[in-house]
């Protein structure tokens, strides 16, 4: 098909959820970076660009009934799937628009939209043509209000530099060997693997590429096609993205990958000394990107950032509430960071996690968790490390119970996603307390759906039979354990966070 300006349009993208697009996560990123947060808790307008099948927009709409949510994608199949889910869940505050971002800013539909408080875009910028990127910038300029926040993820340089040959080879050979783009990706990767075996030097000499290829079995052909078969895919330098968005008067705030806002975690002392020689954030980010080799960035911008002093920032952080998003007994204090392994101090984080195991708590209270011994009171470190390691999530409306729209959407998501072919997708259940999605596995979502239908899963065998019919015995065993854990450990968390009735 040729209508996509080089973007893959002959197969649909897999549905997925990305926590970096959640309002509470963006608020935490802003506060960690010392920028005031200006988005109202009620009545905000959330706009998503390139929404795919719309899971992110749907959970934000369901979890914030007073918000207006608008989500745009040019693929009619994506928009149809998202609208069907919205209908099934009875959501009336979300609109999915089938529109091309290259010229949407100039359309009557754009003119009719209110200013946006938050704009997010995951997996679009570095995959689309310069014309589409320019359209995104004009839309941000026209529609993001002063003080509003933008999130933009993109494939980054120099992280991808050693893998550029891989993409070009996969795309060019794939185009010649197959018709449909998922098959093209598969055919292209077969050629690539053969060339690796034949010791093609540009493919074997890059450690990151070798490691990446080792994990390739985790990705679906659909994902690989949308990742590598686009005509305009081009990873970007952070400073080029900052320059482009400055046309919309956006200022870079920091990273939505929260640990990246702690240079002491990612970089060695020698690297940090060089980083600290520079005062401007673009050069600092360049040094960081060169040291960390990030392949994906989640950048957060504000239109008119208001910088806070350390005391104001810490006071705002102390008021934020955190919740565990994994069972307490799975929390680990030794975490992998770019510079190696980092150990979170047991004397402090042990009691903090014990307190969180009882339920969501404010950062200020966690800093004084009974028995916690800290060398200094550091709300940014506590909030940043627990959420940055994906073990906790920031809460938007502490204590909010599941609303009807949340329950209906979760039932619909469980029906739609609870299938064997989705098992590896990153998904979420809508959460009234998080004001977005509670990140979880497809198994967790399936079990939540069963609980909503009144099935307590005393015997999980029928669940294993439904979800795991295509799996071999060993993997069915793993699935059984995962479903039992979901029933016993995740359901209480989902109830606590207003994804299910308490
Ligand atoms: C890699 S997918 C990411 C989808 C979604 N954000 C997610 O992460 O699941 C990129 C999306 O951008 C959409 N897209 C590509 N070019 C576009 C354009 N010119 N206008 C609107 N949407 C576009 C595609 O249809 C696709 O859904």
What global shape is seen? globular
Largest β-sheet summary: 7 strands, mixed
Small-molecule binders: S-adenosylmethionine
What's the Cα radius of gyration? Answer: 22 Å
Report the average pLDDT across residues. 95
Helix count? 22
CATH classification, class level of the largest domain: Alpha Beta
Task: Identify the CATH homologous superfamily of the largest domain.
Answer: Vaccinia Virus protein VP39
Helix fraction bin: 40-55%
Low-confidence stretches: none
Q: Count the E strands.
A: 14
Number of domains: 4
CATH architectural name of the largest domain = 3-Layer(aba) Sandwich
Structural commentary:
With 502 residues, this protein is an alpha/beta fold. It folds into 4 domains: 19-155 and 235-262 and 294-302, Vaccinia Virus protein VP39 (Rossmann fold); 161-224; 317-395; 404-496, no CATH class. Helix content is 45%, strand content 15%. It has a 7-stranded mixed sheet, with helices on both faces. It has a 3-stranded antiparallel sheet with strand order 11-8-12. A hairpin with a 4-residue loop joins strand 13 (427-431) and strand 14. Helix 6 (164-177) packs across helix 7 and helix 7 packs across helix 10 (221-228). The chain is globular and about 65 Å long. The structure holds S-adenosylmethionine (SAM). S-adenosylmethionine (SAM) binds next to strand 2.
């Amino acid at each position: 098909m040729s209508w996509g300006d080089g973007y893959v349009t002959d197969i649909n993208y897999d549905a997925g959820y990305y926590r970096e697009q959640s309002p509470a996560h963006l608020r935490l990123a802003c506060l960690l970076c010392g920028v005031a947060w200006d988005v109202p808790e009620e009545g905000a307008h959330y706009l998503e660009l390139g929404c795919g099948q719309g899971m992110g927009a749907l959970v934000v709409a369901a979890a914030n009934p007073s918000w207006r949510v608008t989500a745009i994608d040019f693929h009619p199949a994506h928009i149809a799937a998202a609208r069907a889910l919205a209908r099934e869940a009875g959501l009336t505050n979300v609109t999915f628009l089938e529109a091309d971002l290259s010229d949407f800013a100039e359309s009557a539909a754009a003119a009719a939209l209110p200013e946006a408080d938050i704009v997010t875009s995951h997996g679009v910028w570095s995959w689309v043509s310069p014309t589409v990127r320019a359209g995104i910038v004009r839309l941000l300029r026209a529609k993001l209000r002063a003080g509003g926040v933008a999130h933009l993820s993109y494939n980054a340089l120099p992280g991808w530099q050693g893998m550029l040959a891989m993409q070009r080879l996969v795309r060019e050979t794939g185009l010649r060997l197959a018709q449909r783009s998922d098959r093209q990706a598969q055919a292209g990767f077969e050629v690539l693997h053969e060339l690796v075996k034949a010791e093609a030097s540009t493919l074997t000499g890059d450690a990151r590429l070798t490691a990446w290829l080792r994990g390739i079995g985790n990705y679906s052909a659909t994902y690989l096609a949308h990742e590598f078969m686009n005509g305009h895919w081009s990873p970007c330098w952070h400073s080029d993205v900052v320059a482009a968005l400055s046309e919309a008067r956006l200022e870079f705030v920091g990273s939505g990958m929260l640990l990246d806002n702690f240079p002491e975690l990612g970089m060695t002392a020698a690297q940090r000394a060089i980083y600290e020689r520079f005062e401007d954030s673009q050069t600092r980010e360049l040094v960081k990107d060169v040291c960390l080799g990030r392949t994906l960035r989640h950048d957060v911008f504000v239109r008119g950032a208001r910088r806070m002093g350390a005391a104001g920032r810490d006071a705002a952080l102390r008021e934020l509430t955190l919740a565990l998003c994994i069972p307490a007994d799975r929390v680990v204090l030794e975490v992998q960071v770019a510079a190696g392994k980092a150990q979170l101090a047991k004397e402090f984080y042990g009691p903090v996690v014990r307190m969180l195991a009882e339920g969501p708590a404010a950062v200020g209270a966690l800093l004084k968790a009974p028995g916690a011994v800290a060398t200094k009171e550091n709300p940014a470190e506590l909030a940043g490390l627990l959420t940055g390691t994906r073990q906790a999530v920031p809460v938007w409306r502490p204590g909010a119970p599941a609303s009807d729209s949340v329950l209906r959407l979760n039932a619909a998501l469980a029906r739609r996603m609870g299938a064997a072919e989705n098992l590896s997708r990153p998904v979420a259940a809508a959460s009234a307390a998080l004001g977005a999605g509670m990140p979880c596995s497809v198994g967790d979502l399936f079990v939540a759906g069963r609980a909503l239908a009144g099935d307590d899963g005393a015997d999980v065998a029928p669940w294993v039979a439904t979800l795991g019919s295509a799996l071999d015995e060993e993997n069915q065993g793993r699935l059984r354990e995962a479903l039992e854990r979901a029933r016993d450990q995740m359901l209480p968390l989902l109830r606590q966070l207003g994804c299910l009735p308490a």
